[in-house]
Amino acid sequence: MTGSIFDRGYIRELLITGTIVTVLGVMMLSLASEYYQVLLAQGVCVGIGSAMLYVPSISLVASRFERRRALAVFVATSGTAVDPSSPPSPSSPPDRHRDVSPPLNCMCR
After folding, report:
1. Can you give the residue ranges of every domain in the chain?
2. Which pLDDT score, from 0 to 100, does residue 92 have?
3. Which 3-state string (H, E, C) describes 10-45?
């Protein structure tokens, strides 16, 4: 879906819409209190918004480079996995005595 929109030349609209949908999903995730709300916010909104941002960014890199295109696409796609692998900030110690849900409670012991 986003590839055909990109091919028609609506790059700016795709990026703006993807940014709005992703930010809306993250904001709605902070307000979620039920499991289905988490699925809708994180899975649907953030997933669709991230796809709207990811496809044009990779396609633009691939279309702009003629020499070393594979290297340029490699660098562009490898940056997406950097953030989740970064270690947590040591600003606050982990809370070992917090109340967790029953399925996670048995995993924490």
Report:
1. 2-81
2. 54
3. CHHHHHHHHHHHHHHHHHHHHHCCCHHHHHHHHHHH
pLDDT digit string (tens) for 18-43?
A: 999 999 999 988 888 888 888 888 88
Report residue 86 as tokens: 């970064």
Q: What are phi and psi of 73, to 5 degrees?
A: -70, -35
Distance between CA atoms of 37 and 33, rounded to whole angstroms? 7
Check: pTM over 0.70? Answer yes or no. Answer: no
Question: Around Cβ 36, how many Cβ atoms within 10 Å?
Answer: 9
Say how far apart CA 62 and CA 103 lie, in whole Å: 44
Least Cα distance to 54 among 76, 33, 75 occurs for 76
**CA 64/CA 60 separation, integer angstroms:** 6
Task: Decide if 8 contacts 45 (C-beta within 8 A).
Answer: no
Spatial CA neighbour of 21 closest among 46, 53, 51, 55: 46
Distance CA 61, CA 25 (A): 26
